Amino acid sequence: MTVRISNTAPMLELFQDAAGLKNAAGNPRNKQIVLRILQETARLIEELDISDDEFWVGVEYINRLGKSNEAGLLAAGLGVEHFLDLLNDAKQAEAGRTGGTPRTIEGPLYVAGAPLSQGYARMDDGAEDDVATPMFVEGQILDLQGQPIAGALVDLWQADSQGNYSHFDKSQSEFNLRRRIVTDAEGRYRARSIVPSGYGCNPQGPTQECLNQLGRHGQRPAHIHFFVSAPGYEHLTTQINLSNDKYLWDDFAYATRDGLIGEVHFIDDQALAAAHEVAGRFAQLSFDFQLRPAANPEAEQRSNRPRAFQEE
Ligand SMILES: [Fe+2]
After folding, report:
1. Quick check: 69 pLDDT over 80?
2. 225 C-alpha vs ligand 1 centroid, how far in Å?
3. How many Å lie between the centroid of ligand 1 and the Cα of residue 150?
4. Is the pTM of this model over 0.85?
5. Topology annotation, domain 74-309
6. Distance 299 CA to ligand 1 centre (A)
Protein backbone atom coordinates (compact mmCIF):
# COMPACT_ATOMS: atom_id res chain seq x y z
CA MET A 1 0.00 0.00 0.00
CA THR A 2 1.19 3.47 -0.83
CA VAL A 3 2.32 5.41 2.21
CA ARG A 4 1.13 8.99 1.96
CA ILE A 5 2.22 11.92 4.04
CA SER A 6 2.27 14.67 1.39
CA ASN A 7 -1.32 15.63 2.11
CA THR A 8 -0.89 15.97 5.87
CA ALA A 9 -1.02 19.34 7.61
CA PRO A 10 2.64 19.32 8.75
CA MET A 11 3.82 18.65 5.18
CA LEU A 12 1.62 21.37 3.72
CA GLU A 13 3.05 23.73 6.32
CA LEU A 14 6.61 22.72 5.44
CA PHE A 15 6.06 23.25 1.71
CA GLN A 16 4.29 26.57 2.32
CA ASP A 17 7.26 27.71 4.36
CA ALA A 18 9.71 26.45 1.71
CA ALA A 19 7.76 28.31 -0.99
CA GLY A 20 8.04 31.54 1.00
CA LEU A 21 4.33 31.86 1.73
CA LYS A 22 5.02 32.86 5.31
CA ASN A 23 6.92 35.98 4.35
CA ALA A 24 5.92 39.13 2.51
CA ALA A 25 9.04 39.41 0.34
CA GLY A 26 9.69 37.81 -3.05
CA ASN A 27 7.32 37.20 -5.94
CA PRO A 28 3.79 35.94 -5.14
CA ARG A 29 3.31 34.28 -8.53
CA ASN A 30 6.55 32.36 -8.26
CA LYS A 31 5.70 31.34 -4.70
CA GLN A 32 2.44 29.86 -5.98
CA ILE A 33 4.26 27.96 -8.74
CA VAL A 34 7.01 26.66 -6.44
CA LEU A 35 4.47 25.48 -3.86
CA ARG A 36 2.66 23.52 -6.55
CA ILE A 37 5.90 21.99 -7.86
CA LEU A 38 6.82 20.86 -4.33
CA GLN A 39 3.41 19.34 -3.72
CA GLU A 40 3.28 17.59 -7.10
CA THR A 41 6.84 16.31 -6.65
CA ALA A 42 5.98 14.84 -3.25
CA ARG A 43 2.82 13.19 -4.63
CA LEU A 44 4.74 11.76 -7.57
CA ILE A 45 7.41 10.32 -5.24
CA GLU A 46 4.71 8.68 -3.14
CA GLU A 47 2.48 7.39 -5.89
CA LEU A 48 5.25 5.96 -8.08
CA ASP A 49 7.21 4.86 -5.01
CA ILE A 50 10.31 6.70 -6.25
CA SER A 51 13.36 5.40 -4.40
CA ASP A 52 15.98 7.71 -2.94
CA ASP A 53 18.43 6.47 -5.54
CA GLU A 54 16.03 7.27 -8.37
CA PHE A 55 15.42 10.75 -6.95
CA TRP A 56 19.12 11.61 -6.74
CA VAL A 57 19.84 10.20 -10.18
CA GLY A 58 17.14 12.59 -11.39
CA VAL A 59 18.75 15.54 -9.58
CA GLU A 60 22.11 14.70 -11.11
CA TYR A 61 20.43 14.43 -14.54
CA ILE A 62 18.99 17.93 -14.19
CA ASN A 63 22.47 19.24 -13.42
CA ARG A 64 23.84 17.66 -16.58
CA LEU A 65 20.87 18.85 -18.64
CA GLY A 66 21.56 22.44 -17.60
CA LYS A 67 25.30 22.15 -18.08
CA SER A 68 24.75 21.06 -21.69
CA ASN A 69 22.11 23.76 -22.40
CA GLU A 70 19.65 21.07 -23.46
CA ALA A 71 16.68 21.88 -21.22
CA GLY A 72 14.91 23.60 -24.12
CA LEU A 73 15.60 20.63 -26.36
CA LEU A 74 14.16 18.21 -23.82
CA ALA A 75 11.05 20.39 -23.47
CA ALA A 76 10.53 19.99 -27.22
CA GLY A 77 11.35 16.29 -27.22
CA LEU A 78 8.91 15.48 -24.45
CA GLY A 79 6.12 17.27 -26.29
CA VAL A 80 5.75 20.07 -23.75
CA GLU A 81 6.52 22.78 -26.30
CA HIS A 82 3.93 21.28 -28.67
CA PHE A 83 1.46 21.14 -25.78
CA LEU A 84 1.94 24.90 -25.31
CA ASP A 85 1.09 25.41 -29.01
CA LEU A 86 -2.04 23.30 -28.73
CA LEU A 87 -3.07 25.08 -25.54
CA ASN A 88 -2.59 28.48 -27.20
CA ASP A 89 -4.62 27.27 -30.19
CA ALA A 90 -7.41 26.13 -27.87
CA LYS A 91 -7.43 29.45 -26.01
CA GLN A 92 -7.55 31.35 -29.30
CA ALA A 93 -10.33 29.13 -30.66
CA GLU A 94 -12.28 29.73 -27.45
CA ALA A 95 -12.01 33.46 -28.18
CA GLY A 96 -13.20 32.85 -31.76
CA ARG A 97 -9.77 33.51 -33.23
CA THR A 98 -9.06 30.92 -35.90
CA GLY A 99 -7.66 30.69 -39.43
CA GLY A 100 -4.27 31.54 -40.82
CA THR A 101 -1.07 29.52 -40.93
CA PRO A 102 -0.72 27.22 -37.92
CA ARG A 103 1.86 28.00 -35.29
CA THR A 104 4.44 25.45 -34.30
CA ILE A 105 7.34 25.22 -31.90
CA GLU A 106 10.20 27.74 -31.97
CA GLY A 107 12.81 25.35 -30.63
CA PRO A 108 15.90 26.54 -28.76
CA LEU A 109 18.11 27.67 -31.67
CA TYR A 110 16.88 31.14 -32.69
CA VAL A 111 19.42 33.97 -32.59
CA ALA A 112 18.08 37.52 -32.57
CA GLY A 113 19.58 40.26 -34.72
CA ALA A 114 20.13 38.50 -38.06
CA PRO A 115 20.97 40.72 -41.09
CA LEU A 116 17.97 42.63 -42.44
CA SER A 117 17.19 43.06 -46.12
CA GLN A 118 14.37 44.22 -48.38
CA GLY A 119 12.48 41.62 -50.40
CA TYR A 120 15.36 39.23 -51.01
CA ALA A 121 18.32 37.74 -49.20
CA ARG A 122 20.93 35.14 -49.85
CA MET A 123 21.02 33.20 -46.60
CA ASP A 124 24.06 30.95 -46.95
CA ASP A 125 27.65 32.18 -46.97
CA GLY A 126 28.70 29.87 -49.81
CA ALA A 127 30.80 27.65 -47.54
CA GLU A 128 28.82 24.61 -48.67
CA ASP A 129 28.72 25.44 -52.37
CA ASP A 130 30.40 22.12 -53.16
CA VAL A 131 28.21 19.90 -50.99
CA ALA A 132 24.80 21.52 -50.53
CA THR A 133 21.94 21.79 -53.02
CA PRO A 134 20.97 25.43 -53.62
CA MET A 135 17.36 26.13 -52.73
CA PHE A 136 15.19 29.07 -53.72
CA VAL A 137 12.46 29.85 -51.22
CA GLU A 138 9.73 32.35 -51.92
CA GLY A 139 6.20 33.17 -50.98
CA GLN A 140 3.75 35.80 -49.90
CA ILE A 141 2.58 37.04 -46.55
CA LEU A 142 -1.19 37.39 -46.71
CA ASP A 143 -4.04 38.37 -44.46
CA LEU A 144 -7.02 36.09 -43.81
CA GLN A 145 -8.74 37.46 -46.93
CA GLY A 146 -5.72 36.56 -49.05
CA GLN A 147 -4.60 40.16 -49.48
CA PRO A 148 -0.81 40.67 -49.47
CA ILE A 149 0.83 42.36 -46.49
CA ALA A 150 3.61 44.70 -47.63
CA GLY A 151 6.37 45.49 -45.14
CA ALA A 152 5.91 42.30 -43.13
CA LEU A 153 9.03 40.98 -41.43
CA VAL A 154 10.04 37.41 -42.27
CA ASP A 155 12.73 36.24 -39.83
CA LEU A 156 13.91 32.79 -40.88
CA TRP A 157 16.59 30.41 -39.76
CA GLN A 158 17.64 26.91 -40.75
CA ALA A 159 20.34 24.27 -40.41
CA ASP A 160 23.11 23.65 -42.93
CA SER A 161 23.55 20.44 -44.92
CA GLN A 162 25.01 18.79 -41.82
CA GLY A 163 21.98 19.68 -39.71
CA ASN A 164 23.87 22.32 -37.69
CA TYR A 165 22.93 25.92 -36.87
CA SER A 166 25.27 28.90 -36.96
CA HIS A 167 26.09 30.49 -33.58
CA PHE A 168 25.72 27.08 -31.88
CA ASP A 169 28.03 25.47 -34.46
CA LYS A 170 31.10 27.68 -34.17
CA SER A 171 32.54 26.41 -37.46
CA GLN A 172 29.91 28.42 -39.38
CA SER A 173 30.13 32.14 -40.08
CA GLU A 174 28.06 34.55 -38.00
CA PHE A 175 24.37 34.48 -38.91
CA ASN A 176 24.91 31.92 -41.65
CA LEU A 177 21.44 30.72 -42.75
CA ARG A 178 19.72 33.35 -40.60
CA ARG A 179 18.10 36.37 -42.23
CA ARG A 180 15.33 38.92 -41.76
CA ILE A 181 13.54 39.86 -44.98
CA VAL A 182 10.97 42.65 -45.32
CA THR A 183 8.21 41.82 -47.81
CA ASP A 184 7.80 43.93 -50.94
CA ALA A 185 4.66 45.73 -52.16
CA GLU A 186 3.10 42.36 -53.09
CA GLY A 187 3.85 40.94 -49.66
CA ARG A 188 6.53 38.76 -51.19
CA TYR A 189 9.74 37.44 -49.67
CA ARG A 190 12.44 35.60 -51.60
CA ALA A 191 15.57 33.86 -50.41
CA ARG A 192 18.41 31.91 -51.90
CA SER A 193 19.50 29.26 -49.46
CA ILE A 194 20.52 25.60 -49.40
CA VAL A 195 18.44 22.51 -48.74
CA PRO A 196 18.75 22.00 -44.98
CA SER A 197 19.36 18.61 -43.49
CA GLY A 198 17.24 17.16 -40.75
CA TYR A 199 19.12 16.56 -37.53
CA GLY A 200 19.18 14.61 -34.36
CA CYS A 201 19.92 15.28 -30.73
CA ASN A 202 23.55 14.91 -29.72
CA PRO A 203 23.81 11.11 -29.25
CA GLN A 204 26.00 11.70 -26.17
CA GLY A 205 23.78 14.43 -24.70
CA PRO A 206 21.27 14.21 -21.85
CA THR A 207 18.22 14.65 -24.11
CA GLN A 208 19.09 11.57 -26.16
CA GLU A 209 19.96 9.79 -22.92
CA CYS A 210 16.39 10.38 -21.73
CA LEU A 211 14.94 9.41 -25.12
CA ASN A 212 16.95 6.17 -25.01
CA GLN A 213 15.26 5.34 -21.71
CA LEU A 214 11.94 5.88 -23.49
CA GLY A 215 12.89 3.77 -26.51
CA ARG A 216 12.65 6.84 -28.79
CA HIS A 217 14.82 8.36 -31.49
CA GLY A 218 15.76 12.04 -31.36
CA GLN A 219 15.49 12.91 -35.07
CA ARG A 220 13.79 15.84 -36.75
CA PRO A 221 12.80 16.18 -40.41
CA ALA A 222 14.47 18.94 -42.44
CA HIS A 223 12.71 22.23 -41.78
CA ILE A 224 12.98 26.00 -41.89
CA HIS A 225 11.99 28.12 -38.87
CA PHE A 226 9.99 31.32 -39.28
CA PHE A 227 8.90 34.28 -37.26
CA VAL A 228 6.46 36.31 -39.36
CA SER A 229 5.18 39.63 -38.10
CA ALA A 230 3.55 42.83 -39.32
CA PRO A 231 1.94 45.80 -37.61
CA GLY A 232 -1.69 44.96 -36.79
CA TYR A 233 -1.21 41.20 -37.13
CA GLU A 234 -0.63 38.41 -34.70
CA HIS A 235 3.01 37.34 -34.50
CA LEU A 236 3.46 33.89 -36.00
CA THR A 237 6.09 31.40 -34.85
CA THR A 238 6.18 28.44 -37.18
CA GLN A 239 8.20 26.08 -39.39
CA ILE A 240 8.02 24.68 -42.88
CA ASN A 241 8.77 20.97 -42.75
CA LEU A 242 10.15 19.62 -46.01
CA SER A 243 7.99 17.08 -47.79
CA ASN A 244 10.80 14.77 -48.89
CA ASP A 245 12.02 13.80 -45.41
CA LYS A 246 11.47 10.37 -43.90
CA TYR A 247 10.95 11.89 -40.44
CA LEU A 248 8.25 14.28 -41.69
CA TRP A 249 5.56 12.61 -39.56
CA ASP A 250 7.96 11.06 -37.07
CA ASP A 251 9.46 14.24 -35.62
CA PHE A 252 10.83 13.73 -32.11
CA ALA A 253 9.84 17.35 -31.30
CA TYR A 254 6.27 17.04 -32.66
CA ALA A 255 6.58 20.21 -34.78
CA THR A 256 5.11 18.87 -38.03
CA ARG A 257 1.50 19.93 -38.49
CA ASP A 258 -1.03 19.89 -41.30
CA GLY A 259 -0.67 23.13 -43.22
CA LEU A 260 3.08 23.33 -42.58
CA ILE A 261 4.40 20.92 -45.19
CA GLY A 262 6.60 22.53 -47.81
CA GLU A 263 6.75 20.75 -51.17
CA VAL A 264 10.34 20.82 -52.36
CA HIS A 265 10.83 20.54 -56.12
CA PHE A 266 14.25 19.47 -57.37
CA ILE A 267 15.17 20.74 -60.80
CA ASP A 268 17.80 19.23 -63.10
CA ASP A 269 17.87 21.61 -66.03
CA GLN A 270 21.07 23.31 -67.14
CA ALA A 271 19.33 26.29 -68.72
CA LEU A 272 17.21 26.92 -65.62
CA ALA A 273 20.25 26.42 -63.39
CA ALA A 274 22.16 29.01 -65.38
CA ALA A 275 19.24 31.41 -65.15
CA HIS A 276 19.38 31.00 -61.37
CA GLU A 277 23.16 31.40 -61.33
CA VAL A 278 23.78 27.96 -59.88
CA ALA A 279 25.95 25.18 -61.25
CA GLY A 280 23.62 22.18 -61.38
CA ARG A 281 20.72 20.66 -59.53
CA PHE A 282 18.73 23.04 -57.39
CA ALA A 283 15.53 23.08 -55.36
CA GLN A 284 12.52 25.34 -55.24
CA LEU A 285 10.11 25.82 -52.39
CA SER A 286 7.12 28.12 -52.45
CA PHE A 287 5.25 28.82 -49.24
CA ASP A 288 2.70 31.51 -48.35
CA PHE A 289 1.82 32.48 -44.80
CA GLN A 290 -1.49 33.90 -43.63
CA LEU A 291 -1.57 36.11 -40.55
CA ARG A 292 -4.50 36.75 -38.24
CA PRO A 293 -5.30 40.29 -37.14
CA ALA A 294 -3.83 40.99 -33.68
CA ALA A 295 -6.25 41.18 -30.77
CA ASN A 296 -3.94 43.65 -28.99
CA PRO A 297 -0.48 45.20 -29.44
CA GLU A 298 1.23 42.47 -27.36
CA ALA A 299 -0.04 39.83 -29.80
CA GLU A 300 2.04 41.51 -32.54
CA GLN A 301 5.25 40.68 -30.68
CA ARG A 302 7.05 37.41 -30.30
CA SER A 303 7.12 35.86 -26.83
CA ASN A 304 9.66 37.08 -24.29
CA ARG A 305 11.28 33.70 -24.06
CA PRO A 306 15.02 34.11 -23.28
CA ARG A 307 17.01 33.72 -26.49
CA ALA A 308 20.54 33.86 -27.82
CA PHE A 309 21.53 37.23 -29.21
CA GLN A 310 24.39 38.53 -31.34
CA GLU A 311 25.13 42.11 -32.22
CA GLU A 312 24.67 42.83 -35.90
FE1 LIG B 1 15.35 23.52 -36.09
Report:
1. yes
2. 6
3. 27
4. yes
5. Protocatechuate 3,4-Dioxygenase, subunit A (2.60.130)
6. 23
